[in-house]
Amino acid sequence: EVQLVESGGALVQAGGSLRLSCAASGFTFDDYTIGWFRQAPGKEREVVSTITSGDWNTYYKGSVKGRFTVHADTAKNTFYLQMNSLKPEDAAVYYCAARSGRVNISGNGQITGVENLFDYWGQGTQVTVSS
After folding, report:
1. What digits encode the pLDDT tens for the residues 100-110?
2. What angle do CA 1, 50, 119 make, to 5 degrees?
3. Angle CA(74)–CA(84)–CA(14) in degrees, nearest 5?
């Protein structure tokens, strides 16, 4: 069974930076996609970023592009979401997710339902941004 464990959530000031980690284990498929999602109180879960194995193709939600970066350390089976220039609207519970196969997401508008493409989820980590 695939297992994902997130860490790194914290309280930060607006304009600050934070790096979230997702330790993965139990992958039995050749190709995979990792996703980062977030959900704020009263809001639907939304995709923040995705990355595909091998070609390392990435997607970023428009409002985080240029501020957030997703990358992988394959030797450690760990995936990261580096968040810079944090804004109060970035505050949410952040989740990492995984699925078999490479799934590329595109577009800079509002995208919903991406979470339905993922089969495995971490427990979530809280990110709070103070203004």
Report:
1. 999 999 877 77
2. 30
3. 145
